[in-house]
Design goal:
The complex is a heterodimer. By secondary structure, chain A is α+β, with helices and mostly antiparallel strands. In chain A, 40% of the residues lie in helices and 16% in strands. In chain B, α10 packs parallel to α18, α14 packs parallel to α15 and α15 packs across α16. By secondary structure, chain B is an alpha+beta fold. The chains are: A alpha+beta, B alpha+beta.
Amino acid sequence: MPESVLRLIVNGRPQQLVAADEMTLLEVVRDRLHLHGTKDGCAAGSCGSCTLWVDGVPRLACVTLAKTVQDCEIVTIEGLAGWWGKQHAADAAELHPLQAAFAEQGAVQCGFCTPGMVMGGAALLRDTPSPSRAQIQEALSGHLCRCTGYEQIIRAVQAAGRRMLDEA
Amino acid sequence: MKLEASARQTAQAVPNRIESWAKVTGQALYADDIEWPNMAYGCLVRSPQAHARILGVDLAAARSMPGVLAAIEGPGSSAPYGIMPSNQDEHALAVDKVTYLGEPVAAIAAESFRQAYAAARAVRVEYEALSPVLKAGAPEKSLPQVREESETGNLHKAVDLEFGDVATGLQTASYRREDRLFYQGNNHVALEPHAVTAFWQPNGQIVVQSATQVPHYVQRSLAKALGVPEHLVRVMVPTLGGGFGGKSELFPHEVAAALLSRRCGRPVRITLSREDVFYTHRGRHPVAMKVETGFDAESRIQAMSFESVLDGGAYGSYGIASTYYTGALQPTTYRMGAYRFHGERWYTTKPPCGPKRGHGTTQPRALLEVHMDRVARDLGLDPIELRRKNLQPAYSVTVNQLDITTSGLAACLDAVERMSSWKERRGRLPYGQGLGFACSSYLSGAGLPIYWNPLPHSGVRIAVNRDGGVHVACGLTDIGQGANTVLAVLAAKALGVCLERVQLTTQDTATTPVDLGSYSSRVTMMAGNALLAAAQHMLSLLTEAAAHHWEVPAEAVARDGEDFCVDGGGQRAGWTEVVRWAEAELGPLAASGGYTPAPPRGRHKGSGVGPSPAYSFSACVAEVAVDDLDGRVQVKRLYVAHDPGTPLNPQSVEGQIRGGAVMGLGEALMEAQAFNPDGRHRGPHLLGYRIPTILDVPEIEVAVVGEPDPNGPMGAKEAGQGPLNPVIPAVLNAVREAIGVDLSETPLTPDRVLRALERRRREEAR
């Protein structure tokens, strides 16, 4: 099985490892780097649970070959608060406003879709500070949730957006 | 930004979830996230045939593959088991024959998952094909028997119940009508696929970490399958990524992981793929149903006869209970003079069906509510008015001997009628648009356990420590519905302390008193009542200690916030101080409580299915638009009212109502666990099997109605399952209103709608 040296910057930290060429980014993040916050719900790119950022763009880690993101910057759910802190010179222990809003708005039930939803929603809010309902639905249309019925997730994105504007 | 919920919490401010901080940061660990030292990975070898005799299993090639640690096949590996005591028909790995495509035949453990998977593909199994059995009912003599030990052929179970004289009631009715519906089966699609890690330790104890809703039943069944005493099996449940009934019994991968662990001496992880989950199934039964009802001259139900035929799949699973449930709850919403139920469940060579949210009551409710609408049409009555004439009242006994306590059913009807502007709008919408109504009811916990025993259904142990902390232990399982939060909030309220003092240990068979599991919407009712009993005991210990200290009678001791004080006297002490007085006097402080529901009223065979300490009630109005060119049904708006008694966690109750309604929407419009003639699932993945996305969900207006129930903890009933049930028939009825066509099967996919429209065109042309 061919292997290569894989170099990534994950949550701000350089990582170098030898990985089989067929390894997905999801396998690297979960099994090799032990960052289990990114979830595997279908392994086929259909549910959005494995969403993380590759150079700032939300990507489905389960259908991304790790070697295709050589030297890229990866942010996972574990690194989102740190990324947010860096942007705003804030304490790294603080939550991204969307993480807080998910908890407060009842957008979390079983929580399995939550990391992917938050990564998708946080990318939307970074680029579109005050998204419309339709924009939120469009941005999160690749993320399945079986528990909430989605309304509280929409509310959380709206609430976080408002808070980010207020504090800007 | 800090979480509000992590700040000082009073017992009054209820957080959505005590663990949401862990779920939004990625810190929450699910079954597939936990790394054990020296862990090996397992993979199941699944049958490519739906029905075949196993002539031989050759593991030699697989055993020689790189990284392989153990390989096992069915014969001699485990004892038969099953969730129902009378249906011990399952083996972890098939023994003589396979009875559904995807049935596990062998299992491999290896150093990595990829190695286990590669070795599983190298296992050679020789099969002799048998005819598949695809349809329930209508026995064909030529078809082979699915379960060869069955004494009734492919008929798994037939049940008959009659209350009152239905024949006379129907004969003397001033109006009667018969209707039929086929309700398609569907899958739970919890976002987290099943996963387990089992470690058969060298000391003989077997530790299992599994994604299950029922650790207690898994412990019992696994001990039986492995032939060891129950106390040697410990089942722990990590954070669970949804259940909906799909993780409610012992599964082959759980047994196989334990067996492989014994062979290789290491912890073994098996995680199912999404495809595996569709083949493991245990979801909603496909049911063909018929109802006939006779009404008197005042449009009141004189007699009802209900028949259901369930397509059970290859094993018993919960099937006996599912069969009874398809006849159990019709009378909880409607008073009737006489009621008859005939149910049948059939074995077929498909993945076994079992319980899904609404267990066995969802399908008959769909037909019953469609039927009531058609009756209203025949009688020239408003559909909601017809229901109002027939409502089963609060504090009454149904014709099938179920005790109803509080009922918010009438309030549910009023709420959705008002929210939807029903009176102003119904019947006045243009062709292609319609409003439809339905109502329903559900249990707040099954009155009887799955296996007969006289023990509490739920137990809680409270320890109060000298640091002022409160430790609550209960076997309940939080599947994402918020059971842990409810337990913690109730503990804080009952003891009169801040929520931040409360620590929980739950979902672990070794360290907690038994709770039967997260099924039948029982946890708030039963664990809640057990908690209140334990808390009352603990409070009396503390009150006595304060009374001794102050040398006053216990009755003189009162509470002021967390403090203890004496009314009119100057004595006052904080919570922790009183705890220390009590510990000095009594030793370490612990109190326990249990809950057992009252015995069912009915004495007939089958009377164990249906009774509950309290019933929730729901109603829904659906507003739809149907495109009669492409057959697409668009649900524009849902109005849902639910009676959960006292909502202990209002945000969570709203979440359950919305989530249930959207799951119902998926069942109504798009979801089908359907199979090709060779037994292959028609789309065992999330592209082939669609569930509602954020784009499919209409605006949903929610009303919470009702009053505190005397049997519920602080008045609470259920919210987890009930709100799903009225949504499907409300959509069916709305589509009828929109296009004037009666549909006779679910889901309402465009092809079905178009076929129904085509049928009408042909009839009109004649």
